Amino acid sequence: MEHYLINSSICLFALWLFYKLAFENTSWHHLKRYFLLASIGISIVIPFIVVKTIVIPIETNSVMNFTSSSVVNEIARQQNFEFNWSFILWTTYGLGVIIMLWRFIKNLKAFRIGDEDELKIYSHYQLVLRNALIVPHSFLKRIFVSKNQYEENLIPTAVLEHEKAHLDQRHSLDILFIEILLILFWFNPLFYIMRYSIKLNHEFLADQAVIQHGIDTATYQETLLNYTQNSHSAALANTFNFPIIKKRFYIMKTQTSQASLISRSLALIPILALLIISCGKEETEFQEIEEILEIEEVVDDNHKTEIIEVYEVLENLTPEHIEEYNRLAIKHKNYMDANNNLIVFKDETQHMQTIFHSMSEEQQSSNEPWPYLGRDNDLKAGQIPPPPPPAPSAIEYINEHKNELNYYLREDQIPADVAIKIINDVGQAGVEISPDDKGVMSIKILETESNKGTLPPPPPPPVKSKTVSEKEFAEYNDWAKKNNEQNRAAKQNYNNGYAIIKQKDFEKYKSIYDRMSTSQKSEAQPLPTLPPPPPPAKDIKQISNKEVEEYNWLLNRHREFLKNEKRIVVFKEDTNRMIQLYASMSVEQQSKNQAWHYLYKENKAKAEEILPPLTT
């Protein structure tokens, strides 16, 4: 969590600093408004973006139950006298959230209309007149002013227009957004700075709207200055003081060019890229490997076997080696503390062990302790955990967990007794112990080259039902009804508008129709027939010159569309017309005009599924 808060804060500060240097003193107030709001969202999202994945090869050995260890129990007893800093931090954070939430609700209640308040209308907004001497302010769809000042005409029109501009541009939504974030991130000073910048930009926007409304700039500035001095409060800018009024006067006269906008916006691109790279998320992926521990067996004169570990040592031990050992020892310790596992890194653990055995006893005692000590094991300083014991055989595993397992022959589930008999008959070759699709640990008897021919034959396939499901029946009916209606209309109108049926679709739905029972076929749509072939050529084929022009126009249209789209395209009416015209041409006309088949030469197999055969 602390890494996320730090990276998010870095992003937010960098974007706010860029705004301060590049945008704040410009006249693009609307752009600045959205930039400030987007900066908050970007700073929240960037730490979640994964920019790097580190793969660490490890070997994991299960450790004994730490809770039963006398060493750990002694440590736990000692820790009872220490402060629980995590609890204190979370309690402090929760109190801060409660206080900020109470403040937020209290401020919202201040905008309720009281019994003594008087309501009027100002340019379709509610004007709330209050007896108290207050500075004019606005929220959502209401403007709040002093009743006495309003009735005595002491509130200039420019002041009301200023507050109206806040409501027109819905600045209250921005304030609500940042105030809600302050409830959650009350401890982060950057959100208070962002709130200040957002409110200041709101004043720039409101000032700009008042001046564009037709009020003279000098007159407005004089009214703003006099009204602020007389009220002894920040009249128009959410309690902004006099120096901010001077800044607003400066911004009113500022005009920034479009070229400057583009150049400053482009400068934001490398900043965002740098923030993503530097503050993005870094994931660590642990890859399990086999540990290799070099040992040597020595047989003495009494025929007793002694295991001697063989260690490599460095000829020249340098301070850099000792520094490397300390780094690796801390890394091993932190990982084992966090994961409650003994861990062996593929190359780093052996390197750490080599450096440790190369040090003198004084050096070993004055540097990081051996990380495997004090973890409820029999390891000594400089020793690493032995490799895990070999996995039990299938029969041993079955004897221990017989009633907890599922059993499979190839891909078919079988009873436990049948599986045990097969394993006893053909041996354990091809037997796998792993979870099945349901997550249950299972014994799977797979067919391999060594047991092929000795396993029982697979069970006969189940007899397929001749009936189809309701879903298939409804899908077929929709498809058949659509094509039958189109073919019926084409036949009645004596045109060539028959449905174009893809070969694969016809085979799919014909298969469903063939599997229907007699009762289902009686209720189903009849199987659509394929479009009729083109009319037979007459003895003397000839089309008019106008029809030849029509054919070439259709051909060019198809060619241009196919060239741009890079895919098979069939125009419902035009494709049939083009094919019909070409089929009706005489041999001489066909020799003078390009055949339509070449359009689909790149996708011939695909085109044959939806068009007549691509042959003359």
Automatic annotation (TrEMBL):
Pfam families: Peptidase_M56. Signal peptide: none annotated. Residues 448-468, 517-540 are annotated as: Disordered. Residues 528-537 have a biased composition (Pro residues). This is Beta-lactamase regulating signal transducer with metallopeptidase domain. It comes from the Bacteria. It comes from Nonlabens ulvanivorans. Keywords: Membrane, Transmembrane, Transmembrane helix. Residues 157-233 form the Peptidase M56 domain. The chain crosses the membrane at residues 6-23, 35-58, 87-105, 173-194.
